[in-house]
Fold this protein.
Amino acid sequence: MSIWEYANPKKFIATTTPLVPWLMWTSVAILCVGLTWGFFFTPDDARQGSTVKIFYLHVPSAMMAINAWIMMLIASLIWLVRRHHVSALAAKAAAPIGIVMTVMALFTGAIWGQPMWGTWWAWDPRLTSFLILFLFYLGYVALWAAIEDSDTAADLTSVLCIVGSVFAVLSRYAVNFWNQGLHQPASLSLDKEENVADVFWYPALVCIAGFVLLFVALVLMRTATEIRLRRMRALEMRMRG
Amino acid sequence: MIALLKRDLKLAVRAGGGFGLGLAFFLIVIVLVPFGVGPDAAVLTRIAPGMLWVAALLAALLSLDRIFALDFEDGSLPLLATSPLPLEGVTLIKGVAHWVTTGLPLTLAAPVLGFLLNLEPGAYVWLFASLALGTPALSMIGAFGAALTVGVKRGGLLMSLLVLPLYVPTLIFGAEAVRRGADGLDASVPMLMVAGITLGCFALLPFAAAAALRVNLR
């Protein structure tokens, strides 16, 4: 029994299809609990008032935007090394979800920034690096769409993903070298000293867990769709040929 | 490798079009800026470092698809791939040739165009130096983008979308160096960052570009 068994598309679909509804409903339930807790049962921040509550959407979506690229990087490496098609398709399936997460983080950030900083957008290092991450996602999806042969597309996008992740990670951590930005430093590191107060910390953790589950469920679902799509294309080709 | 470099340079100079085009584009963009923002000298002085860098970057982008597309179309790219020279060496030389035909003229022309935008006198040295250090990175990143999209019909737009985000760090530090030079501050930190990006690109990207080419030639 090894994990590579699930690289078989048939086995993958058979295993994940019953899992998806469970994951989906669990994530919905967790998100309901986390967001309700965050929105209605936490005190307003002393200085920020109730605007602080968008934190429960902003932080998890921003984390998932970065984690989705890392997941795509791992899937691309598996495809390049072991040539499992499911892995390449999983990377393809994750990209649009990553785009949605990035847009969500940028939007909630803008809505939060307007009352707090007095501006929707500032050319702050962290905001800029997120915008660049968004552009990387767009390029990745565009490259998948542009190339007809699916194996070539998978190879080229994998190479792009690896090169892109070097730059994405660089611009992500370049933030730590500047300190002049408007954006505050990480408020959820494992180092307990810097964290926000516990009242805000626990509902945020719940929301992050919900986002992770939602991401996993969506990726599994979209990967299964991609596999079926490819099967359908193969059938069409056979019928024509 | 030297022979390949010579061949590419000859083709770029003699085959017409590509060599002067980037320079002319650079000139046009810089001339357009005062029309767009108004000829106020103080405003121009302030935006000159950034505009010069952005224009140079766009001019370098313009000629990227020539790096591999022509060789791909006439079939010399498969020949280069089967030659004893490793493909990583080929992509490296292609990047260097692109720099000599595009980045180097841009670097030499930039101080002249600086006059048009009323650049601070102290910034000319930094403009020249930062472009000289930064444009090789632009060429090498461009060679990677060109290698990715060489098989795509009309891949120019797609390549811009892929390459431009990769250009951002070079642009930030390059323009920052000129700006600090213009303000009379110490510009050595952004210059070191530009140099680091260029060296890193030349060390790593030939491998990525060669991998992409191998896939496209399969």
